[in-house]
Amino acid sequence: MSIQKPKGTQDLLPGEVEKWQYLESQARKLCRSFNYKEVRTPVFEHTELFARGVGETTDIVEKEMYTFLDKGDRSISLRPEGTAGVVRAYVENKLYGEPDVSKLYYIGPMFRYEQPQAGRYRQFHQFGVEAFGSVDPAIDAEVIALGYTFYKEIGLRNVSVEINSVGTPEVRAAYKEQLQQFFAPVREQLCKDCQSRFERNPMRILDCKIDHKLGEGAPNILQHLDEACSTHFAAVQEHLQGMGIPFTVNPRMVRGLDYYTHTAFEYKSAGIGAIDTIGGGGRYNGLVGQIGGNDQPGVGLGLGLERILLVLANQGVEVPKPDTLGVYLIGLGEAAEKETAKLLYKLRLQGVSAERDYQGRKIKAQMKSADRMQAQFVAILGDDELAKGEIAVKTMATGEQRTVRIADLEERAATILFG
Ligand code: HAM
């Protein structure tokens, strides 16, 4: 039997991959406007980084990591998300020593051993940003605005922004007790996952699709925030309003990673089966210290690119297509063929995308190839033209034909062809 790709992975073939390139280029453009700089970290890290960073009791670390021993008996994991690795790089490279806030972005594959379904893969891709070194609520709002603007600029409609404050660890400890008291009488009725969450992380019960009803009337975290948390959260909202970013406050929103403090947020859009979260993030003030660094606050987001493409397709949004082939070059006769090989290279050196036949096919088949490649021009060189130092150029959109000098084409193809 032939070998197939692992479950939950995708091949991105020509035709599809251009959409990815478009998303990536839009992400880079946006990061330039917001002044975030690219960082590239390894796709695998020491397992301990994720255990310490993402949280030992999260589903991600407990159940979903691709973990293995390398030949040196070190426990290694494929990164399930981008934040922990970027924090490690920030600490290891002492970026905290820089005078300005470090504003970083990344685009790349992440790995989670999850049950694949529409919008859920085992290898997926995130566009993420992380900003270190500021507790200013303006930067929480900036990050939320960046994600929202990204969706808008690529043409995604009906994206909603939900925000919450998950407080500080101290606030959460007191709130957890309240939640446990609330859920204690119905503990036996909770789903299996939530029964184990009851002790370890009762906030996640609020987020459970199965136990949603049992959580009705549960204590609201926003009423348990201390003054500093409330002030921060109010300021984030004020900044969002100032930028005209629509949002709703959802006090039941709990993220699946343990590192959040203060602001947590998610972007939602319907249209991928049961899944409606297309991105999320938040502030993580203790994480840098936990990873072993000079403690610095941070805030960031991660947007799933597969989910964005699924919603775009569902909404019928076409992403702009890249330019098609510039010139398809046809040589008729032995001498002309040799000359076209040279000319082809010279066109390419000038940045004109150019192609030819490599299978010795008749002119008719070559013209068909030019059509399939949507060539803007077909240039045909016969021995007669060659003798005169000329070549026939046909503009495919209009059918118009003209004769141009080969030497001119070799020197200034773009001007001659595209005017
Ligand atoms: P997350 O909510 O776990 O956050 O993931 C962010 C986004 O990645 C999700 O909203 C979703 O679009 C996408 N995603 C997650 N898992 C899958 C999957 N199995 N298949 C397809 N897409 C998926 C984080 O990862 C945090 N690191 C975000 C962050 C950055 N917070 C602060 N900074």
UniProtKB/TrEMBL annotation:
It catalyses: tRNA(His) + L-histidine + ATP = L-histidyl-tRNA(His) + AMP + diphosphate + H(+). L-histidine binds at residues 81-83, 112, 126, 130, 255, 259-260. One of its GO terms (cellular component) is cytoplasm. It is found in: Cytoplasm. SUPFAM superfamilies: Class II aaRS ABD-related, Class II aaRS and biotin synthetases. Keywords: Aminoacyl-tRNA synthetase, ATP-binding, Cytoplasm, Ligase, Nucleotide-binding, Protein biosynthesis. GO terms for molecular function: ATP binding; catalytic activity, acting on a protein; histidine-tRNA ligase activity; transferase activity. Pfam families: HGTP_anticodon, tRNA-synt_His. The keyword Coiled coil does not apply. It is an enzyme of class 6 (ligase). The keyword ATP-binding applies. One of its GO terms (biological process) is histidyl-tRNA aminoacylation. Residues 8-320 form the Aminoacyl-transfer RNA synthetases class-II family profile domain. Its main location: cytoplasm. HAMAP family: His_tRNA_synth. Belongs to the class-II aminoacyl-tRNA synthetase family. Homodimer. NCBIfam families: hisS. This is Histidine--tRNA ligase.
